[in-house]
Amino acid sequence: MMKLPFFLPRAARLAACAGLALALGACGGDGGASSGGASPPAPKTDTLSGTAATGAAVANATVTVVNAAGTAATGKSGADGRYSVTIESAPPYLLKVSTGSGTVLYSFAAAAGTTNITPLTTLALHDAGGKKPLAALFEGWKTARLAGDAVTAAAKRVNANFAALYTARGVDPKTFDFFTRGFAADGKGFDAVLDGVSISLSCSTTSCSETIKVGESVYTYDFSISVAGISFSGGGTSSTIPAGSKWELTVRGSANGVPFEQTIGNIEFGAVPASADGAQQVVQQYGGISGGVSGRGVSLSYSYSDLSTSYEGCGGCGVGSTIVLKSKGSVSVSGTASGITIPPTTTRFDYTYTYKRTS
Known about the structure:
There is one protein chain. The chain is of the alpha+beta class. The protein has 2 domains: 152 residues, no CATH class; 183 residues, no CATH class. The chain is built from 7 helices and 16 strands. The strands form 4 sheets. The protein has a 6-stranded antiparallel beta sheet. Strands 3-2-5-6 form a 4-stranded antiparallel beta sheet. A 3-stranded mixed beta sheet has the order 4-1-7, with no helix packed on it. Helix 2 packs across helix 4. The longest helix is centred in the N-terminal third of the chain and has 20 residues.
C-alpha cells in the first residue's frame, strides 16, 4: 500500500486545525455577527504550483495566471523558481512569467496541480496555437482558448523533436510530461535539458516564428514529427528508492484558499512512498475518517471526506529526481475552544507533497 508522508489521521487533524483556525477567525471581529443566516460560501479556488526555469531558475518574478472567466491572479517565484498561485476555479488556465532578460514564458493547465513554466511549455503553446502571438492569446483567454488535447499533442511533438537531448540528460522522452512533472532548477535531469536548448520567438501582430538551437547548432523544428510511443505516463506508478538515499520533502498547498508551505530535510529512504499501489484503497479506507482532537482548552470533532490522491513516481530515482504525491478533500470541524463554541465548519484542502532525492 502507498505510504503517505503523514498518517492520514494526523493529516486530518492538521486540516481540522486549519478549519478550527478559520472558524475562530469567524468568531472574532466586533461581535456584530448576525444570527439571521449563514454567510454565502467562498468561491471555490484552485492552486497551481511548479517551477519557472530556463535551465536557471526564474527567480523572484511575478507569475500571472488567468482562468477561463478572464479573472487573473498573481504570485511570486522563489529563488529556486518555485511558485504557487491560488485562483478562482475556472479551468483551463494560461500562465506567464517574465525572465530577467525580459523574455515572457507561457504555460497551460487543464486543472489545479503542478504546472511548470519553461521555454518548452512556451514552444508547445506556440505550436498548439498555430504560431499566433501568445501575448494576444493570454489577453483574450476568456473568449478564445486552446484545447487541452491540442496542448498535449504539441507537448509530445516537443519531446519527439528533442528526444536525443532528453536521452543524453537521462530523461525518458516517451514518458516525461514537462508541463506537469515536478523538477528542480539544479542543472540535472530535465533542467539539464533546458540548459541544452535555446528558443526565441519573433512575433508580428498576427504570427510568430521560432529560432531554436540545441547546444550551438541551429535546429529546424519539425511540427509534423511522429509521436509514436510517447505516452506521457510521467514517472509511472512506482519508484525504486535506493537504500541509503536521502530526501527532502516540500509540502505546498492551501486550506480554503489560504496558502501553506513547509520543507523538511534529511528524510530517510524508508519514509519515501515507493508506489501508488493501493491508492484507491487508501481513498476508500480513509475517505470517511472521523475523530476528535482535545487538549489545552480545545475539544473538537472532525469528519474527513471527499479524499482523492494521485502519485507520480520517479522510476529509477537518481539524485535530483522527484516524487509527487497530491491529496485533496475536505474536513468538517465542530466543538469548543477556550469556551467558545465552534459551529460546524468545512475546510477544503489541496496539498502537494514533493519528495526530492538529495543524495
